[in-house]
Amino acid sequence: MKNIVFIITMTLLLLGFCGCTDEVIDYNDPDVDLFVKQLKDGSYKTKGPDGYVEVPKFAREDIPKLLTYADDLTIIPSFPLPPVCTYFGTKVRLGECMLWIVESIRLGQYASLGCKMVYADATNYEGIYFLSNEEVHDAAKRYRFWWENSQYPQTQWTITPCYNDPLCGSGYRWW
């Protein structure tokens, strides 16, 4: 009987210690899957060089993996916006945030001060101007198309005003 109690106690202790370990994201070399997992469970807290919780430094080579989550409309508890952002509004969708990261990589700077897309002709930033789930899926499709085509060199026959702008002609923009 003592052996059984001892084994059960040790098992519970071992499980308790294993459950308390936090996986840490390397700010300069982040793992997309771990980042998404932490966003979904609300445990993301990696700080940037200035001491703020920020999106880690994703790079162009992370875009394909980020785009795999673009259609995921899971509402996440929070998203690490730029420190200068004052936006604390509506719920944020994971896929829209992944597109925001892709757009930030494309531009080489923050895509906007909030990870929300709005209609291009919006007169203000009320919720009625935010994109629907179907429109976020459309934007994700446009980003995938842009990414696939950006792999090929631009020639005189492929020059279009929308060559390097995934949202061109969509009626959407970042807010």
Summarize the structure.
The chain is mostly helical and 175 residues long.
* Alpha-carbon distance between the two ends: 64 Å
Total DSSP E strands: 4
Choose one word for the global shape: globular
Largest sheet: 2 strands, antiparallel
Written description of the protein model:
It holds the Pfam family DUF4943. InterPro entries: DUF4943. It comes from Bacteroides graminisolvens DSM 19988 = JCM 15093. This protein has five helices and four strands; from the N terminus they run H-H-H-E-E-H-E-H-E. Helices cover 37% and strands 6% of the residues. The protein is globular, with a radius of gyration of 20 Å. The protein has a two-stranded antiparallel sheet with strand order 1-2. The longest helix has 18 residues. Helix 4 packs parallel to helix 5. The protein has one domain.
Labels describing this entry:
5 helices, mainly alpha, two-stranded antiparallel ribbon, 175 residues, two-stranded antiparallel sheet, DUF4943
